[in-house]
Structure formats: structure tokens, C-alpha cells
Design goal:
By secondary structure, the chain is mainly alpha-helical. The protein has one domain. It is 56% helix and 0% strand. Helix 2 crosses helix 3. It is globular and about 40 Å long. The N and C termini lie far apart (39 Å).
Length: 75
Amino acid sequence: MYITKQSAKQLYNEREAAEALGISTLLLYSILDEHVFNQGTPRPENIEFTASDLLLVSYWVETATQQKLSAASGS
């Protein structure tokens, strides 16, 4: 097992979260609006993410990517 000497950050701001996920902040906002702030609750001005939050958002990013690829291929 690989053990990192650098500890993970405890909190990531929106820009850092998007960078860690390899996406734009606009895509991050879109995903949050679709999956989290979708019951009329407005997205807060500044959001901070934990590593666990990023794991969940990365799943949604992957799902969105797969859906776009399926739509583009006509499946």
C-alpha cells in the first residue's frame, strides 16, 4: 500500500475542488445545481468541500461524462 507523506487538505474551495476534479467551475456549479441544489434551495455564494464531497462529485462528473458520450454516439 502506498502511504503519502503529504496530508490531504481538509477543505477545498470551489476553484480548488474543480481543479482537483479536472473540470471547470462552471461544470462544478452545473453538477451541484443538478444533484444538490435542485429542490429550490439556492446554491450558496461560497462552498467548501471535504475529500468525501469530492469523491461524490467525481461520481456525478463521471456519470455526466458517460451520458454525454452515449448521447453523442446515438445509443
